[in-house]
Design goal:
By secondary structure, the protein is of the alpha/beta class. 34% of the residues lie in helices and 22% in strands. Strands 1, 3, 4, 5, 6 and 7 form a 6-stranded mixed β-sheet that branches. A two-stranded antiparallel ribbon has the order 2-8. Helix 1 packs across helix 5. The chain is globular. The termini are far apart.
Length: 186
């Protein structure tokens, strides 16, 4: 008997107008354009959803969430976190409009018996999150690494995911033209 395919959501969280806070959407867009996955993998740039995050988490087997985090380390450090890391306070999502929404959405879904079976947060330490700054050079470089990490995590869990022979063009409307052009060619 063939096991059913995992229901997976790959979600980028962050405000693209607040400098490095736009890393989540950038990394997920990079992943979407460089890799193709089986049909059960949903890929979303959700911006700053707050409680509106719950429908995207509902009943998922695996959720990979990409966001900036407040943690010990230097800007650009990429780490994996599970929910317990945030409960123990070893890391925190950046305190913005989307921070409390994740934990409240998970609490509501637990009550309904529909929380994700596994939640992994791919977090990066930002350098600057000033309004209108754009994602900084350090985090621009990390978007490709984060995309590869997402693919590796999926493959490790038995999800079909492979690099596209020809990447599709990225839709990076929020990045200044020179930054967006350099990412398209890397």
């Amino acid at each position: 008997m063939i096991a059913p395919a995992l229901r997976v959501a790959v979600i980028g969280i962050g405000n693209v107008f607040l400098g490095d806070d736009g890393f989540g959407p950038l990394a997920v867009e990079t992943f979407r354009c460089r890799f193709e996955c089986e049909h059960t993998v949903e890929i979303h740039d959700l911006g700053t959803p707050g409680l509106d995050l719950a429908p995207y988490l509902y009943g998922q087997d695996l959720v990979l969430l990409v966001d900036t985090v407040q943690a010990e380390g230097t800007p650009g450090t990429l780490s994996y976190y599970c929910e317990d890391d945030f409960v123990s306070r070893s890391a925190r999502l950046r305190v913005t409009g989307h921070d409390p929404g994740l934990w409240e959405a998970l609490a509501h879904l637990r009550l309904a018996g529909q929380s994700p079976s596994e939640l992994i947060i791919i977090g990066v330490i930002p350098e600057s999150c000033g309004f209108g700054e754009g994602v900084g050079a350090v985090l621009l470089d990390r978007a490709s690494i984060a995309a590869d990490n997402i693919a590796n995590l999926l493959v490790q869990r038995g999800v079909s995911c492979r690099r596209r022979s020809i990447p599709i063009p990225q839709h990076l409307w929020w990045l200044p033209l020179p930054e967006a052009a350099s990412l398209a060619t890397s």
